[in-house]
Automatic annotation (TrEMBL):
The keyword Flavoprotein applies. This is Flavin-containing monooxygenase. InterPro entries: FAD/NAD-bd_sf (IPR036188), Flavin_mOase (IPR000960), Flavin_mOase-like (IPR020946), FMO-like (IPR050346). Its cofactor is FAD. Gene3D superfamilies: FAD/NAD(P)-binding domain.
Length: 438
């Protein structure tokens, strides 16, 4: 028999919105809690930065968004939509639109998605969830979730059968340990607080990390900076100036820093730098969640069955969008469909023991393959299998293969063209691109 549950969705970003749509489709009763005053989460550009530029001070003024002003997506337009609600301007033969849309376009898309899916009436705006806990930890069967939130300085409490957590994972900076950093006199900033290049005029900057943000920010900031030195674990070229770039240099990792302002790299090079800009990623953070059975250990959120369900609470506690290195929107959509169907009884979860065994198996496999803990939710080469599994589980037809071909093509161009990957791909019709990887 189909069940309808009373569900709290925490967060009104992309994951919260698609979760809300899927829950409504399965006839659940939902409330979406959103602490800001609009939907879109990450995609709402916020020019403010935090009071502590590296994000160490727990009492700092906090800002959710991490976008910088010039940001364009790193996935191509067709990969930024949902399976049945494509991103705007996705005609595969049309080369007139930017393949990598600017951030404003993504926000417009999400706002249209929320309106067209009839979600706006279910969102409580300016409602920050501050506590989520079981009403009776000793009596799991009859317990529910107590959700406490603050809205206009008022505390409110309501009980729900299930909670779906979609609070986003790009707000809490992760920093590396650099020998000597305590006595290094320069300025340190995390990419969470990078917005525009102007404050970096004529400065010598060391960027730590060369993931998508490090990569893009180095080009953006180089418009103002005197020199940009990227320190990374994986060099694309021999250490030194990057071919075709006027003032961007690449090095091995930072080995240590000196009290006179010098930054040393493992390749033996050193530079007197004004600023270290950390593009070293983010930590998962669930400050409102008061339960014993879930931890964040070196960025592993666990235990989570297939990155979504807490084995202890089964269908009644789930997470959307924990995974990374994936086609983000499609992944959140499929995870949401699964949650909605598990709650309604259309899909069933294995027993707690079976889910725990599956989690352990994944951890063991990672250990054997030498993968670090902080990569637990990084899908990458597991993405296709994972998404196909979710589609099959939720009774969808097989995912059209162009999604994966396009993602592969993108990764290949990223590897071959480095900093110029967007420019190279902009000029190529999608059909050529797809043919190249088939
Ligand atoms: P978010 O967008 O972060 O939304 C979370 C929401 O939860 C926010 O609205 C927040 O206000 C709310 N919230 C948090 N805590 C609470 C609380 N306690 N109570 C109530 N509300 C709360 N993805 C791509 O697909 N393509 C890209 O090109 C791309 N580029 C990116 C570039 C940058 C710089 C960053 C940081 C991320 C990028 N991403 C990209 C990933 C991006 O995060 C996802 O696309 C998507 O925004 C994730 O949505 P989400 O809903 O999971 O999280």
């Amino acid at each position: 028999m189909r069940r309808s549950c009373k569900v709290a969705v925490i967060g009104g970003g992309m994951s919260g919105l698609v979760a809300a749509r899927e829950l409504l489709r399965e006839s659940h009763q939902i409330t979406v809690f959103e602490k800001s005053h609009r939907v879109g989460g990450t995609w709402v550009y916020d020019p403010r930065v935090e009071s502590d530029p590296v994000g160490l001070d727990p009492h700092r003024t906090k800002v959710h968004g991490s976008l910088y002003a010039s940001l364009r997506t790193n996935l191509m337009r067709p990969l930024m939509g949902f399976s049945d609600y494509p991103f705007t301007g996705c005609d595969f033969e049309d080369t007139s639109k930017l393949k990598f849309p600017r951030h404003e376009e993504v926000l417009n898309f999400l706002e249209a998605f929320a309106a067209d899916s009839g979600l706006m009436g279910f969102v409580k705006f300016g409602a920050e969830v501050v506590k989520v806990k079981r009403t009776s930890p000793d009596d799991e069967l009859s317990a529910s979730w107590m959700v406490k939130w603050v809205q206009e300085h008022q505390e409110n409490i309501e009980h729900f059968e299930a909670v779906v957590i979609c609070n986003g994972h790009y707000s809490e900076p992760r920093l590396p340990q650099i020998p000597g950093i305590d006595r290094w006199p320069g300025k340190q900033v995390h990419s969470h607080n990078y917005r525009t290049p102007e404050p970096y005029l004529n400065q010598v900057i060391v960027i730590v990390g060369k993931g998508p943000s490090g990569f893009d920010i180095s080009v953006d900031v180089a418009n103002a900076a005197k020199e940009v030195h990227i320190a990374s674990r994986s060099l694309r070229f021999k250490a030194g100036k990057i071919p075709g770039m006027e003032n961007i240099f690449e090095h091995e990792v930072v080995s240590h820093v000196d009290p006179d302002g010098r930054v040393h790299f493992a390749d033996g090079f050193s530079v007197l730098a004004d600023i270290i800009l950390y593009c070293t990623g983010y930590s998962y953070h669930f400050p409102f969640l008061e339960i014993n059975n879930l931890t964040v250990d070196d960025n592993r959120v666990g235990p989570l069955y297939k990155h979504v369900f807490s084995p202890r609470y089964g269908p009644y506690l789930s997470f959307v969008g924990i995974t990374s290195a994936t086609i983000v929107f499609l992944t959140s959509e499929l995870q949401s469909k699964w949650i909605a169907q598990v709650l309604s009884g259309k899909c069933t979860l294995p027993s707690e023991n079976e889910m725990m065994s599956s989690v352990k198996e994944m951890y063991d496999e990672m250990e054997e393959a030498g993968k670090p803990k902080h990569r637990t939710h990084w899908l990458y080469d597991k993405m296709e299998g994972y998404l196909d599994w979710l589609a099959a589980e939720t009774g969808l037809p097989q995912i059209e293969r162009w999604w994966f071909h396009m993602f592969d093509a993108l990764l290949k161009s990223f590897i071959s063209f480095g900093h110029g990957f967007r420019d190279k791909l902009e000029k190529m019709p999608y059909s050529n691109l797809l043919n190249e990887v088939k």
